[in-house]
Design goal:
626 residues; mainly beta; Immunoglobulin-like; five-stranded mixed sheet; Hydin-like; Hydrocephalus-inducing protein-like protein; Ig-like_fold
């Protein structure tokens, strides 16, 4: 607007800031800055000063400035709504200390209203699907707020199978911007399981300006096949000629789906004469449609061949199989099995009574290293019998990669340092032989005693006399000491992929654990900002490449008051105190202050240089109380 008469200052009379922020669960809001219309001088240079004192919700980034004739300046105005209410402020500008002009500002804090369009989509159900299949479900989100909203979607998987790549994904995966009052977007969730997964229910979280809110739930499962036999060998014992015996073997289906064989072979048993051949007829009768049905490593048991006992478990886990022994003689047996292969253990002795059938002998497979190049562990167990014969069983083990040693979830207040202790077990049990020295210093003896000690003829001790009536005795020997295993510590961030400077997650690069012992490893977390942080901590033996890992999630929650400052003085007498404000970041930070007690005086804004601290002064001048 153009002034009339002698008024030399051009300012707008009205400024509106509406829909500038959201009311969140913590009443925090991201600021919106709006430049004030230009201030100008028509005739002569003037000094312009802003008399407005910044509040918690309105900040005028202008104090005073001298303007030349015709010069213009833009004044940034930042609005930080703390509540979902309307705001009204009057900002006064003073010209040369005489003339004053006012500008009115109107603002309104609004609530963030992001929700799904259809209420049934609050729960997205994938149902039960088989491994290898892909199912996609969509949900539509709507922004019922009166301003634009920028947010992102994420979820923290609670079971390890969902943490694998491309098992449960969302699109779009980055930031989403919705228009106000009805702006929508379509979110697609894809479930592509690779193996059997138990029923799950995961929350999809909306993250906006560091605040997390639950938006909808994803449910589903993957049904697979798990079939096993109750025993691997069926002993029949002695059977009369031209008679027959029957035994029952039980097949158990512990999975979710029924199983039917796709092939049958005839004959399933028989006899082959020397120099002849026996044809096998294989019939293929598929039970379901598939592009490739293949059964590998089908066993064919030959009379006289050594039976094979198969084991499979995670590395550093264990599995126990049972071998049945039968004594057909009239004398009891006390057998001492001979086990080959360091991965297998069993009882040192076993007693089989006379005519006893199916005496169980348990063999435990506990691998300490994963299979190299898909080569299975090989071993055997031999039972020497009293009549000079023996029973030999071949052992074959598969060591699979380890599962997570633990899934840890912690809630830590912001600005609070927290140390998590992660137990590390050294599964190796090796000793190293080292020379050791053991010394005693500070024994006050006389020169005569020292000379007698030297002449004593003790072959395992030597004494050296020093000037200050002191002697040092050394005793040499050998001792078996535990071997220290060195683990390299690898820290991988899962969510987010990279930490901001306001959050730290620290640990040592290496740690050493003695053989067959457990040690706690420290992981320190600190955050100035609220949020959810998920990391994978891996401890790898660089010599053998064996490893164990933890999945740990830290949720940074709002912090409480850092302390209480008491200011006590008489009426109409001032007192002062200070608060240390530290800036640990690598760049300068601006702090705004706010106090609703009118008797407390403090600077509305101050700067703290990078990696330094300042003392913020507070004054108290209480007036008379009525």
């Amino acid at each position: 607007m153009a002034p009339q008469g002698p008024n030399p200052l051009e300012v707008p009379e009205l400024a509106r800031l509406e829909g500038a922020g959201f009311k969140t669960s913590r009443l925090l809001a991201f600021p919106q800055s709006q430049p004030l219309s230009p201030l100008g001088i028509r005739q002569f240079g003037k000094g312009v000063e802003c008399l407005f004192i910044n509040t918690a919700y309105l900040e005028v980034s202008f104090r005073s400035e001298a303007l030349s004739p015709g010069e213009k300046v833009e004044i940034p105005i930042s609005f930080y709504p703390r509540e979902a209410i309307s705001y009204h402020e009057i900002v006064t500008f003073e010209i040369n200390g005489i003339l004053q002009r006012t500008v009115e500002f109107f603002g309104k804090g609004i609530e963030m209203k992001i929700d799904v369009v259809e209420p049934p989509q609050k729960v997205l159900k994938f149902g039960a699907i088989p491994p290898g299949h892909i199912v996609k479900k969509g949900v539509t989100l709507v922004n019922n707020s009166v301003t634009f909203v920028v947010f992102s979607l994420s979820f923290v998987a609670s079971i390890p199978e969902l943490q694998e790549a491309k098992v449960l994904t969302m699109s779009p995966s980055g930031e989403i911007t919705l228009k106000p009052q009805g702006g929508t977007c379509h979110v697609e969730v894809t479930f592509s399981p690779k193996s059997r997964i138990l029923p799950f229910s995961e929350e999809v979280l909306l993250e906006c300006q560091g605040v997390l809110n639950s938006l909808f739930i994803v449910q589903g499962c993957c049904q697979g096949i798990e079939v096993h036999l109750d025993q691997d060998h069926i002993p029949f014992g002695a059977v009369v000629l031209r008679s027959q015996a029957s035994r029952r073997i039980v097949m158990q289906n512990s999975g979710d789906l029924g199983v039917g064989p796709d092939f049958s072979i005839k004959p399933i048993e028989g006899y082959i004469s020397p120099g002849t051949s026996v044809p096998f007829e294989v019939t293929f009768h598929p039970c379901e449609q598939s592009q490739d049905i293949c059964y590998e490593n089908l066993p064919c048991h030959i009379q006289g061949g050594e039976p094979v006992v198969n084991f499979i478990c995670q590395v550093r886990g264990k599995q126990t199989q049972t071998i049945m022994l039968s004594n057909k003689t009239n004398q009891p047996w006390i057998l001492q099995p001979i086990i080959e292969g360091e991965q297998w253990k069993g009882p040192e002795y076993i007693r089989v009574e006379a005519h006893q059938q199916n005496k169980p002998y348990e063999v435990t497979y506990r691998p300490l290293a994963m299979n190299v190049e898909n080569k299975k562990d090989q071993g055997s167990v031999f039972f020497p019998l009293p009549d000079g014969t023996g029973l030999l069983y071949l052992l074959q083990g598969t060591a699979e990669p380890p599962k997570s040693a633990g899934n840890i979830m912690r809630e830590i207040p912001c600005k609070t340092s927290y140390t998590e202790l992660l137990p590390i077990t050294n599964w190796l049990n090796k000793l190293q032989r080292q020379m050791w020295k053991k010394g005693w210093a500070g024994l006050a003896i006389s020169p005569q005693a020292a000379e007698e000690d030297l002449k004593g003829g003790r072959g395992d001790r030597k004494s050296t006399v020093v000037k200050n009536w002191m002697s040092v005795s050394l005793r040499l020997g050998t001792e078996w000491l535990p071997l220290l295993t060195r683990f390299r510590v690898i820290l991988d961030m899962i969510k987010p992929e990279k930490l901001e400077v306001t959050t730290t997650l620290k640990t040592l690069d290496y740690t050493e654990v003695p053989a067959s012992t457990k040690k706690d490893h420290k992981l320190t977390f600190f955050s100035y900002k609220e949020g959810m942080y998920t990391a994978k901590v891996t401890f790898r033996n660089e010599a053998t490449q064996e490893f164990l890992f933890y999945l740990i999630t830290f949720k940074a929650t709002p912090c409480g008051p850092l302390g209480t400052l008491e200011l006590t003085t008489a009426v109409r007498q001032s007192t002062a105190s200070s608060v240390k404000v530290e800036n640990p970041l690598h760049y300068q930070v601006s702090f705004n202050t706010d106090c609703r007690v009118p008797d407390i005086n403090l600077p509305p804004q101050f700067m703290v240089p990078a990696q330094s601290e300042v003392q913020a002064c507070l004054g108290n001048l209480p007036g008379p109380r009525v």
